[in-house]
Amino acid sequence: MRMSSAAGEDIREGRQWPDGAARWRWVAGALVAAITVVMVVKFRHHDYKDAEVWYDAGRRVLSGETLAQLPHYRYPPAFAVLVAPLAALGPAPFFFLWYALNLVLFGASLWLAQTLAFPRDAGGRRASWVPTALVAVFALDTLFLGQTNILIMALVYWAFLDDLRGRQWRAGGPLGAAIAIKVFPVPLLAYFLYRRRYGVVVAGALWSAFFLFVLPAPVRGFHRNAVELRDWSDRVALPFVSHGKAGDWGQHSLDYGNQSLPAVARRFLTRVNVQVAAREARAIYVNVADLSSGAVNAVVLAVSSVLVLVLIYACGWSIPSGVEGWPARDRIQRAVGYSLATTLLLLTSALSWTYFFVMLLLPATVAVRLVTERDRVSALSVCMLRAALIALGAMTPLLMSQSARALGCLFWASLLLYATLALAAVDLRRAGAESVSEHPPMPAQD
Q1: 117 and which of 211, 282, 298, 365 could share a cystine (Cβ 3.0–4.6 Å)?
Q2: Does residue 24 lie in a domain region?
Q3: How many domains does the chain have?
Q4: Measuring CA to CA, how many Å separate 337 from each of 168, 202, 226, 317, 344?
């Protein structure tokens, strides 16, 4: 075969074409550069979004001002104390350091997801661009809004990895920190309780208490911290738990940006405008019925209960007591359980905005891994997993439509992913049972 002159010149000059990993690094670098340019433009136009809220809270901590009744700040005092050192640097350093921190945390989350899904298969991680691309729009949304969900994702995945490695007490640390920053992941304690990971539950509760009550006290004082915690509970936490509303953001529990089961159910089953009043846009209605609030709550509770039962059936009650002594391929069963718990959290939370779904990074990574498990996952499961990944990818253009979001397009795609992961989990459990019956584990030696 005759080489082209350009190729010949490349070889003579000692240059080589970059391999696949190098090409993706170049692509990632170009994307980061482009996003950074956008962030610079946003800063120049004073488009700080939620980063301004965190900065203001941090500055108030530094100046000794109260956080009670602070408009738009709906986090416990602990988060304001944690970001106060960054706020001391000034608005520009805070804005860009917070952005850079989120980039690093997204990279860490990707590594954690890959480690959970591909524990000893570095080659399989080459497909990591698929789940990364699927959640890219949610990651960008988080970056541009200056939100905290990438931080929460990294902490939750860290807890998963420590639990997978049998470090239950260590796993409670990042999980407790995530709960203290944003109460959103607190239902994961119930998942670990179901999996009989009592060390994670106890440690998570203790670390949450530490971050909520102890950490801010030296800076805020125990009394002031207690007052601000009580204000946060009355203004945000209790309305969220009882009505799915966060204080004066009650309409956000119905707005088209909310892709949770409670929000989608209320939009379908009650005649309510799915636009936040502050948008001052035309009213949008997608309801097919007009039920009472109690009836809708009953529907949400029933569907949520079914989803929980699906997780329990898919994962079963018997679990490995630890990773040691089990084949590396059986770790994927634990990763599927983490993925189901994460997806269920997104589906059933009263407030799950589109940027919350960046946490689908792990479920999507695990789904990519399961497609390769054809010896233990049925052809039906593989086909459905592929369909779920395609459906999730199709959501990116649909999210540009207010009507599509009002209909819960992301919710339905996530629900399909949840169902297919559950089906694959059943296949894995059955294949594991058959493997144990044919090849029982060796007895432990003294």
Answers
A1: 365
A2: no
A3: 1
A4: 16, 20, 36, 12, 10
